[in-house]
Structures are given as C-alpha cells and as structure tokens.
Design a protein that fits this description.
The protein has about 210 residues and is mainly alpha-helical. It has two domains: about 90 residues, Orthogonal Bundle (Endonuclease Iii, domain 2), CATH 1.10.1670.10; about 100 residues, Hypothetical protein, domain 2 (Endonuclease III, domain 1, Orthogonal Bundle), CATH 1.10.340.30. The protein is about 60% helix and about 0% strand. The longest helix is centred in the middle third of the chain and has 19 residues. The protein is elongated, with a radius of gyration of 18 Å.
C-alpha cells in the first residue's frame, strides 16, 4: 500500500468518526483567533478558552489591546503559561497590525509569519480557520500521528507538513488537520496508547517503537 492509498483509507475513517469538526479555540474573528492561537502554545485549548473571555472583555481588537499595558495583558493571561513572552507577543503583534495593516489581520502566509510570536503553525491555523485558505497546520498531535501511521518520518513538524500535503487532497487539508487533532486526543494519545484498539493504528500503524 502506497502512502497515498493509506492516507485515503485513513481519511475515510476520520470522516466516519468526525463528519463535523468545530474549531477548538473560541473566537469571533481573525484577530481573536490569532490571539487565541498565540496563547495556545504549550497550553490546552480548554485553558485558553477559559482565559480569552476575560482578555477579550477588555480588548478584542488590536486598537483596544494597545490601550492595555504589557503587564496588564500578562496578568490576565498568566494561567496559560509563558505569560511574559506571550503578552509581549500579543502587544507587539497588535502594534504592527495597527501601524501596517489598518488593524486587520493579513490573509497572506508571509505577512502572518513575520508577526511576533507567529510561527509557521500559528500562521497556518489562522489562514485555514479564519480565512478558509487551504493549509495543514502541524501540532504535536498531528506530528505524532503522521509518524505512527507511516505518513511521515517524523524528523520535524515542517517535514511532516510537507509529507501530509503530498498525500492528502488540498481541498481536504483544513478539515483533516482538525480531524487528526480530535482523533489524537480521543484515540491516539502520546501515553498509554494501545495500537491494537486504535481504529487507525490497528490497521495502518507501522510496526515499530511508537514515538
């Protein structure tokens, strides 16, 4: 079975399990999504969704965010962890959005990727979930599962993204990256995983020590 054939079979299982895939981070528009994704670094979506209502009550636009000090932002987002760096990133990103983009979040990868605290994954999440642009953000769940299923060699997230975009149809990327995240959380965790009972690993997992 080729990687593309395996990917097609896996996509079929994911479609059966997750015909609808809600976006896990609560948001109202591209800006609030961008802020939520920045906060999600090394933090659970559940925790982010508990913190963002408090933050967005004070500031849900880049203009309003600049009315707060970095210290005020830091205090609000402290439960998300890495608060000092995230607060600076949110503030400085808001400044650039106001100064260079008229307060709007850009819809081009290169422009997003240049913003403070916005890495490749964050830029791809915003493109796919806020603007509907085909993208394949790779988080820890997707990176782990792509390796387990033999769809990538697992060297790094960028390589995993390249491999997955080759075997899955472009028009399905936005749906698939969310389906894989939900699947990883429910059926294919990093620890305590039993490949024999996993709906995908039991059929298509590679026979090696799992990462």
């Amino acid at each position: 079975m080729t990687r593309k054939e395996k990917a097609t079979a896996i996509a079929g299982i994911l479609d059966e399990l997750y015909p609808e895939v809600p976006i896990p981070l609560d948001h109202q528009d591209p800006y609030t999504l961008l802020v939520a994704v920045i906060l999600s670094a090394q933090c659970t979506d559940v925790r982010v969704n508990q913190v963002t209502p408090l933050l967005f009550e004070r500031a849900d636009t880049p203009y309003a965010m600049l009315e707060l000090s970095v210290e005020e932002i830091e205090e609000i987002i402290r439960p998300c962890g890495l608060a000092p760096s995230k607060a600076k990133g949110i503030y400085n990103t808001s400044r650039i959005l106001v100064d260079e983009y008229g307060g709007q979040v850009p819809d081009q990868f290169e422009d997003l990727h240049k913003l403070p605290s916005v890495g490749r994954k964050t830029a791809n999440v915003v493109l796919s979930q806020a603007f509907g642009v085909p993208a394949f953000p790779v988080d820890t769940h997707i990176h782990r599962l792509a390796y387990r299923w033999g769809l990538s060699n697992g060297k790094n997230p960028d390589k995993t993204e390249q491999d997955l975009t080759k075997v899955f149809p472009r028009e399905d990327w936005n749906k698939l990256h969310l389906q894989i995240i939900y699947f990883g959380r429910e059926y294919c965790p990093a620890r305590g995983h039993d490949p024999a009972t996993c709906p995908i690993c039991s059929k298509y997992g590679v026979k090696r020590r799992m990462k």
